[in-house]
Design goal:
The complex is a heterodimer of chains A (270) and B (84). Chain A has 270 residues and is mainly alpha-helical. Chain A has ten helices and two strands. In chain A, strands 1-2 form a two-stranded antiparallel sheet. In chain A, helix 3 packs across helix 4, helix 6 packs parallel to helix 9 and helix 8 runs antiparallel to helix 9. With 84 residues, chain B is mainly α. Chain B has one domain. In chain B, helix 1 packs antiparallel against helix 2 and helix 2 runs antiparallel to helix 3. The longest helix of chain B has 25 residues. Chain B is elongated and about 50 Å long. Chain B starts with a helix and ends in a 6-residue tail after the last helix. The chains are: A mainly alpha (270), B mainly alpha (84). Chains A and B meet through helix 1, helix 6 and helix 9 of A and helix 1 and helix 3 of B.
Chain lengths: 270, 84
């Protein structure tokens, strides 16, 4: 690190500090200071878990998950779709490449491998716990799924891509898991609509609890604990889809040259 | 008192993240740049935690410190380690 680097970094920090001080004094414009909550935020907080007004409530104590998958469910659905479009394009880049066993040296030393073997179940458990408490405490499907995918990264780095393939974590399996998650999310979104068609009652897309003009609802309690109705299923399927999708991206990027070259060359000749 | 400590910690984390962002941009050794970027992500996670957004922290930690550096390191491994 040179002296010029330090000087530039220090001046950037000084600029940021001076700007924030000027902002604090009101030099850039009036700063909105609010001691009370805005009406919109207050509505969400008061209605997230409100058995007295089920028509407006998600019956889940965790406001963020309720907003993400119930009040603004369609937004999240298309966000998920965008992410999976990205993963699909990553997979499409290496279409037709297969993992070959016996190319690598077999990973890191025994100490690292043993530590990973102890850590990996704990990481997966933490991810499942984050997912399954998503409607009660901070967390949810994406968070849990990303945590589970970290376990795949660890295994990939300390063992090898061969070991993952031997234990059944292959591209095809992960693609199937990812699609299962996506189909699950889509089915949960229209589940009450289908039930409504069968029973002959009114229903909405992305409906969770009873709404105005529709008596249908997902079960809101399981042995006394709130399940958030449809939020349980959304979180579960999202965790499935995200953990499989991110693991897939990692595995595809770590494909070795020998595996990719052949396919790419073959396509170039044709 | 606790609010003041949280604000001070946030300020320190924000300033540190600025320094590490700058280092990540100017660093020629790409592996080191990724490590700097991961430190910056950790600082952001701390700021999110202090701003009482635990949902974001839970997604920022695995993605910002685990998956994103892993993917970039894998890509660097296949190309040059030093930016020419």
């Amino acid at each position: 690190m040179r002296v010029t680097d330090l000087v530039v970094a220090a001046s950037i920090v000084a600029l940021a500090l001076l700007l924030s001080y000027a902002m604090f004094l009101g030099g850039i414009g009036p700063v909105p200071v609010r001691s009370e909550l805005r009406t919109l935020a207050l509505n969400y907080i008061l209605l997230t878990y409100n058995p007295a007004k089920i028509v407006y409530s998600a019956l889940a104590p965790e406001g963020v998950t309720a907003i993400v998958w119930d009040y603004r469910g369609l937004d999240t659905y298309f966000e998920t779709a965008v992410m999976f479009l990205a993963i699909i394009s990553v997979v499409a880049l290496t279409h037709g490449c297969k993992v070959k066993v016996g190319l690598g040296k077999g990973g890191m030393s025994l100490i690292v491998k043993t530590t990973t073997r102890i850590l990996m179940p704990l990481i997966v458990l933490a991810g499942i716990s984050i997912t399954m408490h998503g409607w009660l405490t901070p967390g949810g499907g994406f968070q849990g799924g990303a945590t589970i995918a970290v376990a795949t990264v660890l295994a990939l780095v300390t063992y090898s891509i061969d070991t993952l393939a031997k234990h059944g974590i292959r591209k095809r399996v992960l693609l199937a898991m990812r699609s299962t998650g996506l189909i699950g999310i889509a089915l949960t979104a229209v589940a009450l609509l289908i039930v409504g068609l069968v029973v002959g009652a009114n229903a909405y897309i992305f409906q969770n609890q009873e709404r105005v003009g529709s008596p249908l609802a997902f079960p809101a309690y399981f042995s006394g604990t709130p399940t958030g109705g449809s939020l349980l299923f959304y979180n579960l399927f999202e965790a499935f889809a995200v953990s499989a999708g991110l693991s897939l991206a990692i595995i595809v990027t770590s494909l070795r040259e020998e595996e990719v070259k052949e396919t790419l060359r073959g396509e170039g000749v044709e | 008192m606790i609010g003041l400590i949280a604000a001070l910690l946030m300020a320190v984390a924000a300033v540190t993240s600025i320094v590490f962002t700058y280092l990540a941009i100017v660093e020629r050794n790409l592996v080191q740049a990724v490590v700097f970027s991961a430190v910056q992500s950790t600082m952001y996670a701390l700021i999110y935690f202090l701003l009482m957004a635990p949902d974001i922290v839970l997604v920022y930690l695995p993605v910002g410190v685990g998956i994103y550096p892993a993917i970039v390191l894998l890509l660097i491994k296949k190309t040059d380690k030093v930016d020419e």
